[in-house]
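Q: Here's a chain of 404 amino acids. Please give me its 3D structure as tokens.
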Amino acid sequence: MNFSHIRTVYLKELKDLLRDKRTIRSMIIIPMLVMPALAFGVGSIAKNVYSKARAEIPSVMILGGEDSPAVLAELRRSKKFRVVPTVADWKHSISEKKIRAAVQVPEGFAAGLAAGTTGTVVIHYYEGELKSGFAAAELEAFFRGLRERTVQARLAEHNLPATLMRPFETKRENAAPPDRVGGNALGGIIPYFIIILCFTGAMYPAMDLTAGEKERGTMETLLCSPVARVNIVLGKFCMVLTSALASMTLSLLTMTASFAIGGALWGGGGKEAGVSRLNLPPIDPAGILGVLAMVLPVAVLFSAVIFTVSLFAKSFKEAQSYVGPMMVVVIMPAVVGMLPGIDLNVRLALVPILNLSLVCREMLSGVWHWQYIAIIFGSTCLYAGLALAWAVKMFNREDVIFRA
């Protein structure tokens, strides 16, 4: 192994990469533009859609209740929703979004209120549809208010205090430090973004330095140089690793700045706009440093695996067909790590990608399981070393480099 030769190959590949506009666009420019677009474009659209849905007066139908005219009259006087004439196929109207909800008033509802008997009001709505959910919430609030007024009236009839039904209140107070709350809230999302950014940052340079050079016919020229193949592999690999880390770092910085600015802009409306203020919760800085340290062997693993897989391709397009499906393999463990109820243990600490997602969530929450951290860092370094050794072995095979 000659470090001077490795550095020469690395600098050569770095210069070629910086000259390649296609790789620069895919590795740096596009990821840095996507995050502001998400924060400002999607954030603005989401806020406008939510505000319009919240401001809309929903159309609702009343099913039954003819023997409770006072209740129906109060429903029609409400300014929170608009009562429309009842039709036979009201379920189809809800499904087609012609109305947002329907409330079914039981028979003898008003008489039951007066007599103290129970009755069930059923609210029909389109589950998962935003405007229908708002309409159902307004109907629930109306009948909840009617129930409370009925209880207060009965208590007053018997000269009983209103506090009889609610003799005490309960209140929640957070006992955890704010940085632990923030780490627990964002602990699953941040590793997910880091994993995806590392993979995509390594993908295009790895394909270009292997299959791309085969397609351009420059691989043979490089192999004719008086440099051992292990040094060529390590030089190219270091370039792929640099690309992965640079792309991840720049994208994370852009994402953090974009969501911070977007939170200040789109969260300024407060309750008047129908949207709660968006504030990024604080995160322990030590946890962020720990995450960055744990990402390094994973970036090495991604770079080596993608580099090796791309060696088998004869063209850049073929390499894309090989590497593209690998994204699913990377995403699935990262998504599993975001699920609640999955705790880090010795067995999961040996599962690549999933172990990173779980330990990063713990570290960002201020919990440091040093035994698991050591297992995860060591096992990931081992996997990365094996992947790099595999890359060197494949690069020395003529049937792989010059595959027809």
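Q: Can you summarize the key feature?
A: Strands lie at 59-64, 82-83, 101-105, 122-125.
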